[in-house]
User: Fold this.
Amino acid sequence: MRLKSFISFVALIVICISCSTGEKALRTGDYYNATLQSLDRLRSNPDSKKAKAVFRKSYPMAIQYYSRKAESELNAGGAFAATNALNHYSNLQKLADEVDRCPAAEGLVPEILYYNNAVAELKPRAANENYVAGIAKLKTGDMYDAREAYFFFEKTLSIVPMYKDAHILIKNAQEIGTLNVEVESVPVSPSSYRISADFFQTKVFSYLNSKYSRQFVKFYTARQIKESKMSPDEIVQIVFDDFVVGETHTEAVIREVKRDSVVVGTVKMPDGSNRNVYGTVKAKITENKVTLASRCLMNARIISVKNNLVLNQQRFPGEYNWQYVWGNFNGDERALTKPELDMCNRRMIPAPSPNALFEELANQVYSQLAGWLDRQYSTNRYTALRKY
Assistant:
């Protein structure tokens, strides 16, 4: 067993070394990563024969492969020809930079090629390609097109910072591409629960805005919508369809307890000594239990303002029971166990307020509601995919 474990360990080391030298990447035709991995290996082990062999093969093949890809893109003249060619030449320039950082790679290949000029020449063209594509998408006025426009302008600015007015247009694209959602106040009756309902709504609202602060969806309270005179795209309604708070159930159980072999007295022996007398002691315990039962059924709906349709709806049940147990006894204290004695030493305490019970009840459905809203406003649904 130990021999097998040792062989497996050695095999694992061999595999890891093979991967770190770039051999696996080279075999699969990934010349770029094969070159990077071989250079990393040479930095840590300048005498690695495998890494040197991989570098000698992978670097010239990477040059050939990416140069052809870049030339092919430019000759084809597609909408993103310069962008794609720039990516290829940028990869080649990175390889050259990495070679310069690896003394052990010196002299392993006839020549190191640099592409700074090609990259510098293509950057304005590539930036303009994405800029033009962004404007075309933004002009449609469509929310989802605006999101794509945002990413085109983002790409533009990553290539050439402050290119034309892209820094302004990206903000416009984000504004048009953002779904504005109103989270309505949670209606409750009677109004005595208003404070707890407001606390619950604030908790939900804060969670949503912290969760989605960087995505194409923004949440507002009804008050914010009114003050800004904004028209939301969707409305989230959260309603307690049914709830009962503090339904009281009381119970009193009387039971008899006893314990054997307890010293109940002493007896004087003929020789004048005292001896314990053992017997059974008994007591009657009254156990009082009060339960304040609370339950609810929350209904959450997402409504499209444009056509007043319910896009999705879900109900969430919740339950919370507050209990307190205390008691008293008659009889011999020694018949009680320690937990029974502790219970009998307790006295009834004031019950939680209805607002406190309502708050605990709302917390029971909060996690369910938060998970459901997560799924409804997920990244996959509301963030456009990069298509370039």
Remarks:
- The first strand starts at residue 179 and ends at 183.
